[in-house]
């Protein structure tokens, strides 16, 4: 009888601990909003420069072929990261992976926008801008996409009961981000109407870098810290 009482007490304690853990977690709907925010922002940043970069690059002597390589660099980096995304998230944890990816997105977006200034400051030539653009855009796809991969993994493990719906909505949000990005880029490029070409070029990158950084703290408050677990309950603290 005593052993039964101890067993019952242990079971109640485990159940109470699980209830407390579930109560401490943010609502799943809030997590999904966080996932959508990461994906939307990342795809806006992936596409915003398409509105103005090509004519500016042509003015700087960058050929159409090399311009195509620059635009291909971002998805090339994303593809590489996706191969190792589960291991990265397992090692870093969901919260750290997302916040780190967004911070790197901010830094590398700003670096892309400041490439002409950096090359000029080091006494380089305009023809060398293209290598900075290529490298920073590739790194943004490679390192920044840690955030979106972690967000997608979190969504698949937190919503196994609605996986088809969630994955379809992820595709929709990503598509909307790709659609909105060029509009945002064009508007931001045109805003400093009285500014120099350099200022008009930098401004969209400043704003997008700031937007990525501004998302870090709110997401850290709602994203779970854990990584991927073998039972599919990944992302739990």
Overview features:
237 residues; mainly alpha; Growth Hormone, Chain: A; 10 helices; 80% helix; 0% strand; disordered C terminus; transmembrane helix; membrane
Descriptive overview:
One of its GO terms (molecular function) is transmembrane transporter activity. InterPro entries: MFS, MFS_dom, MFS_trans_sf, MFS_Vesicular_Transporter. It is a multi-pass membrane protein. It holds the Pfam family MFS_1. Residues 30-237 form the Major facilitator superfamily (MFS) profile domain. The protein is an all-alpha fold and 237 residues long. It has a single domain (28-221), classed as Growth Hormone, Chain: A, CATH 1.20.1250.20. 80% of the residues lie in helices and 0% in strands. The protein has ten helices and no strands. Helix 5 (94-113) packs antiparallel against helix 10. Residues 17-21 and 230-237 have low confidence and may be disordered.
Task: Summarize the structure in short.
With 237 residues, the chain is an all-alpha fold. Helices cover 80% and strands 0% of the residues. It is found in: Membrane.
**Could you please say which CATH topology applies here?**
Growth Hormone, Chain: A
- Kindly name the structural category: mainly alpha
Helix content: over 70%
Number of strands: 0
Radius of gyration (CA) equals 22 Å
- Write down the overall geometry: elongated
Q: Give the name of the CATH architecture.
A: Up-down Bundle
Order of helices and strands: HHHHHHHHHH
- What percentage of amino acids are in beta strands? under 5%
Q: Mean of the pLDDT scores?
A: 86
